[in-house]
Amino acid sequence: MESQSINNIKIHFGNKYYTDLSPLTKDGFEVTRDFLLRVVQILLEFLKSSADRSSKILDFYQPEQLKKILDFDLLAEPKKLDQLLTDCRNTLKFQVKTGHPYYFNQLSCGLDIVSLAGEWLTAAANTNMFTYEIAPVFILMEQVTLKKMREIIGFSDGDSILAPGGAISNLYAVMAARHKMFPNYKTQGLKCLPQLVIFTSDHSHYSIKGTGMITGLGTDNVIPVPCDNRGKMIPVELEKMVVEAVARGQRPFFVNCTSGTTVLGAFDPIHPLADICEKYDMWLHVDAAWGGGCLLSRKYKGLLDGIERANSVTWNPHKLMGSLLQCSTVHFKENGLLISCNMLSADYLFQQDKHYDVTYDTGDKVIQCGRHNDIFKLWLMWRSKGMTGYEKHIDHLFDMAHYMIRKLNERKDRFFLILKEPECVNISFWYVPPSIRNMPHNKDKEIKLGQITAKLKGRMMDTGTLMIGYQPLGNTPNFFRAIISNPGVKEEDVDYMLNELERLGHDL
């Protein structure tokens, strides 16, 4: 059948239902093609709008309002194909445009088109990643790509896996560390363990505390280590707390070093922490979920100096690298730990007498059974950029962050930087409205600024013209945290952000 222009596809499908699509009907390919081309047209319209700076980021409605606008009901009778297309269009109409240049809300911003193409192909292939038998090309892609990432980290050997998010990647690291030090735990459980303790910075991701809950160690045994005024773990404090834990009869076994904290973007000092881990026989994990992309830039890889000394590393390409969600990797210096730790040898999946090399099967390396194909979108995107393109990508994000810092400093009377010289592309600040600009900067003023921040965020969402995240941190009340991880952001977009904050908040 000849190819068909997307502009000439069928607009309406009349009384057609899912039963008129392939493979449920023998002659359903033409309807299938037209239906999918209509879906693609809807997607392209969304992409065009997402890149249009004159369009809104979202049309915001409160949950109860949105439930009245959209029909979410699942009924007994099937809906026609035309209704399904309307559903697709309405879903995107009320969705946040995370690829919009004015979306600075999360660590994962932007929309890489090549990665999107990879995700489409992945969905069409619809395969599981547990055996080479059913995912041969994707399994080999995963091996090659993850080996490349280990080489960039500085691991000469080792093993890696793609996991459903950085929290699970960090969990795998804790599980592997425990298995390495106490292999009998796998069969005997908690009774064979001393009281293990984990150390992590005050500013680390909450998933580290979650590992204590999930693994049975208890959240009380995930010990926060104080940070300096830049948000970096203090090595002297870590060693002091390790000694105290030993004196209590506990067994310090795992240190989480954050390379790019979620709020301030701080990088814990790896070399001093590695020295302490070696001294007290502890596993060093580097959570570079956020900052790992800096390794692709000669200019910024020094932020992770010493990462090759880690036992394991989490690195999320769906953050600084710009891959579509989800795409998280965890890497181990020692090969064989993943399979040894997690293998359960289900003989209905992982038969050892297959007619190919079964070491290529990955299912027994993980605690999941079903594992989504997250590799193709990353591999294809990396192929599109090459190492040189990725270096430019990372350097551009930092250039934009530095530009924003300069612009904030030029408006010192209207904005207050929480961290004057951030290490990453997290920019933390308050907007200071005219009503309190002459007020001396003290705790009372900070409380007011925190209240203003929450109100201003509400205005942003109601107007749909800008999105920036906010949060408190320790004793510091709510402040904005703008993230520049969209490679499409330009200097004029940063200017717009600051101007729009002033416009929305001038009377607060």
Question: What are its keywords?
Answer:
five-stranded mixed beta sheet, disordered N terminus, single chain, 14 helices, 508 residues
Please tell me about this protein's structure:
- By secondary structure, the chain is an alpha/beta fold.
- It contains 14 helices and twelve strands.
- β9 and β10 form a beta hairpin.
Please outline the helices and strands.
Blueprint: H1 29-50, H2 63-69, H3 81-93, E1 103-104, H4 113-125, H5 136-153, E2 159-163, H6 166-181, H7 185-188, E3 196-201, H8 206-215, E4 222-225, H9 235-247, E5 251-258, H10 270-279, E6 283-288, E7 312-315, E8 328-332, H11 337-342, H12 375-410, E9 415-417, E10 426-431, H13 443-463, E11 467-473, E12 476-483, H14 491-505
Parallel strand pairs: 1-11, 3-4, 3-5, 5-6, 6-7
Antiparallel strand pairs: 2-8, 7-8, 9-10, 10-12, 11-12
Helix pairs in contact: 1-3, 4-12, 5-12, 6-8, 12-14
Short description:
This protein is an alpha/beta fold and 508 residues long. The chain has helices at residues 29-50, 63-69, 81-93, 113-125, 136-153, 166-181, 185-188, 206-215, 235-247, 270-279, 337-342, 375-410, 443-463, 491-505, and strands at residues 103-104, 159-163, 196-201, 222-225, 251-258, 283-288, 312-315, 328-332, 415-417, 426-431, 467-473, 476-483. The chain has a 7-stranded mixed beta sheet with strand order 2-8-7-6-5-3-4, with helices on both faces.
